[in-house]
């Protein structure tokens, strides 16, 4: 059966590229340009997936587009349909897409793609990935599952995300602290039992700014994600201590959790691990771990802003500013103004090195 998409895009030039991709894939689609009409379309018919421009107008008679309206639409979609029932691909410009990755995932985005598209097949690849991941019969996509109590399941941890019973509960989104907690709690003692770690031990091992209070916040986020997403995707009722329980000695995974850690997790450094790992590349000047991470990110083609360093490494803005200023002084990166803000990129000299 041919897939049908709802496309929410107010820019005609971007829409032309989207239309070329969908026609090439032989997907049918309906287009709307704003938040209000998108909800009206969804009330009339069933779609297999949605493509949502993050920066859209709220109503058809308004020309002012804002990320708030796209974010509100994404929130509305997730209130009515689960990710399994209606996958949503979010489009945003390079800086917004990278800087807001964690926020988009928390809002319920199935995947996201930056604009302008870097290649003719980029959007098509994302669509195929999302539909393959959903892997459900066409006629059951808009049907809500029956509720049942959580009774254990498989927790799969990769370099970039964690899934429980096939539902994504954590995505790194440029931070990685919640993933690191799950990795540490998935370790076993000599008796083969899951280890118990106090908030203080986790904070010390992860070198987290905010100590035990920060750890408690990350654990709360994991629990809330599990509770809301399992119920939304599978109709499973999960209570606070069903996955991570709190004992007098600290946090531990429940025995009915089966953990699978994919090998790539051991090979790819998360942002937290960048505190202790050193890069094999040499940039001609001494760099600390944060500065090395910045250059590595830019070499991978990811635009970067100061706030991302503060979030990833949990450091004060003054520390992030000092790190970036030193990189600029060494001639490794430069600041590019864009609208009311801006971002950092590699200098031409380093790109050609």
Give the SSE layout.
Elements: E1 4-8, H1 12-24, E2 28-32, H2 35-44, E3 49-53, H3 67-80, E4 88-93, H4 94-99, H5 101-107, E5 111-115, H6 122-134, E6 148-149, E7 153-157, E8 161-164, E9 167-171, H7 177-185, H8 199-206, H9 211-234, E10 236-237, E11 244-247, E12 250-253, E13 257-261, H10 264-267, H11 289-299, H12 306-313, H13 317-329, E14 333-338, E15 341-346, H14 348-351
Helix pairs in contact: 2-3, 8-9, 12-13
Low-confidence stretches: 136-144, 263-280
Radius of gyration: 22 Å
CATH architecture type of the largest domain: 3-Layer(aba) Sandwich
| Rough outline | globular
Number of beta strands:
15
CATH fold-level assignment of the largest domain: Rossmann fold
How many structural domains?
3
CATH class group of the largest domain: Alpha Beta
Helix content: 40-55%
Fourth-tier CATH superfamily name of the largest domain: Response regulator
* β-sheet strand percentage: 15-25%
The structure class reads: alpha/beta
Query: How many distinct helices?
Result: 14
For the residues shown, what is the average pLDDT? 79
Termini distance? 50 Å
Structure commentary:
There is one protein chain. The protein is built from 14 helices and 15 strands. It is α/β, with parallel strands linked by helices. The chain folds into three domains: 4-140, Rossmann fold (3-Layer(aba) Sandwich), CATH 3.40.50.2300; 148-267, Orthogonal Bundle (Arc Repressor Mutant, subunit A); 278-351, Arc Repressor Mutant, subunit A. It has a five-stranded parallel β-sheet with strand order 2-1-3-4-5, with helices on both faces. Helix 2 (35-44) runs parallel beside helix 3 (67-80), helix 8 (199-206) packs across helix 9 (211-234) and helix 12 crosses helix 13 (317-329). The protein is globular. 36% of the residues are buried.
């Amino acid at each position: 059966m041919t897939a049908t998409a709802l496309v929410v895009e107010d820019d005609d030039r971007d829409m032309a590229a989207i239309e070329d991709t969908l026609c090439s894939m032989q997907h049918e689609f309906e287009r709307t340009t704003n938040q209000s009409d998108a909800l009206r379309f969804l009330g009339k018919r069933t779609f297999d997936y949605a493509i949502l421009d993050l920066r859209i107008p709220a109503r058809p008679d308004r020309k002012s587009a804002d990320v708030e309206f796209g974010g509100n639409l994404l929130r509305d979609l997730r209130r009515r349909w689960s990710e399994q029932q209606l996958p949503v691909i979010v489009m945003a410009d390079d800086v917004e897409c990278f800087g807001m990755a964690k926020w988009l995932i928390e809002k319920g985005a199935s995947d996201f793609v930056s604009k302008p598209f870097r290649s003719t097949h980029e959007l098509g690849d994302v669509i195929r990935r999302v539909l393959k991941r959903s892997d459900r019969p066409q006629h059951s996509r808009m049907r809500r599952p029956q509720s049942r109590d959580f009774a254990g399941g498989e927790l799969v941890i990769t370099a970039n995300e964690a899934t429980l019973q096939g539902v994504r509960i954590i995505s790194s989104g440029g931070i990685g602290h919640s993933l690191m907690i799950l990795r540490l709690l998935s370790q076993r003692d000599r008796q083969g039992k899951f280890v118990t770690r106090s908030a203080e031990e986790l904070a010390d091992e992860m070198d987290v700014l905010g100590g035990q209070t920060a750890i408690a916040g990350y654990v709360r986020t994991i629990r809330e994600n599990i509770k809301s997403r399992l119920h939304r995707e599978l109709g499973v009722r999960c209570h606070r201590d069903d996955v991570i329980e709190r004992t007098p000695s600290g946090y531990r995974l429940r025995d009915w959790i089966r953990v699978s850690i994919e090998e790539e997790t051991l090979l790819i450094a998360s942002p937290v691990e960048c505190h202790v790992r050193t890069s094999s590349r040499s940039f001609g000047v001494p760099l600390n771990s944060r500065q090395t991470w910045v250059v590595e990110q830019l070499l991978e083609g990811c635009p970067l802003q100061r706030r991302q360093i503060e979030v990833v490494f949990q450091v004060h803005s003054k520390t992030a500013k000092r790190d970036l200023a030193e990189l600029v002084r060494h001639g490794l990166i430069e600041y590019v103004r864009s609208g009311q803000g801006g971002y950092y990129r590699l200098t031409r000299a380093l790109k050609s090195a």
